[in-house]
Amino acid sequence: MLKKAFAVVAFALLAVVGAPAAANAAGYVPSGNVTVSGTATPGGTVTVNFAAGSYLPGEQVSVSVNGATSVTLSVVKAALTTFTKPASSTGAFSVNVTLPTDATGTYTLTATGLTSGNVGTASITTVPASLANTGGGASLANTGGGAALANTGATLPMLMIWIGAGALVLGGAIVGTLAFVRRQRRNA
Questions:
Q1: Which UniProt keywords apply (predicted)?
Q2: Strand pairing partners for 48?
Q3: Does the predicted model carry a pTM greater than 0.90?
């Protein structure tokens, strides 16, 4: 009986520790390490920057862009295709994205480290040229000189999410073990 209870607790601990390790086999570049500079207007060019440490030094990074129409990555025309370029000696990475003249909607850029497996994403939302910020004030296309919209959502670090999930699994295992022991004592 004690062996079974110990096995349940060991299994719960394995689930708490093992699941996050398996889920994080490939890392993700934190959104705070990704910036988009430039004006995302039709025909405009934006630069997507991944901060130092996002990738391994000198690692080849594969970039793909999904959107309504094809874009130009640095000098390569891309529509659901990939472009590979090495990261800097600090693990930083940047790529220029030239939007087509008929660009509309949101484009998603995904950069994947071919050695580390680190994945970083950036969303590029196009705005009409008439709404772009050209004078340094507030606008729909915030290029760093104007006021941005307030962040109304909450972002929890992945560690906090895994700790919460682990606590739930551990709590369930403890309740199950106590119920099992209580039944065994009642039947004995």
A1: Membrane, Signal, Transmembrane, Transmembrane helix
A2: 36, 95
A3: no
User: Degrees (nearest 5) of the Cα angle 175, 171, 166?
Assistant: 150
38 shares a domain with 7: no
List of E strands, 57-187: 60-66, 71-73, 76-78, 82-86, 93-98, 106-113, 119-125
Residues 6 or more apart whose CB falls under 8 angstroms from that of 48 comprise 34, 35, 36, 94, 95, 97, 109, 111, 122, 124
- Tell me the per-residue pLDDT of 161-187, one tens digit each, with 9 for 90 and over: 788 888 999 999 999 999 999 999 998
94: domain CATH number is 2.60.40.1930
Three-class SS state of 37: strand
Question: For the chain, what's the residue count?
Answer: 188
What are the b/e assignments for 37-67, b being 16+ CB within 10 Å? ebbbbbebebebebbeebbbeebebebbbeb
Domain that holds residue 106: 31-154
pLDDT tens track for 18-63: 554 444 445 767 767 788 888 888 888 888 888 888 888 888 888 8
What angle separates helix 158-187 from helix 2-23, to the nearest 10 degrees? 160
Which residues, in sequence order, are bridge partners of residue 82? 64
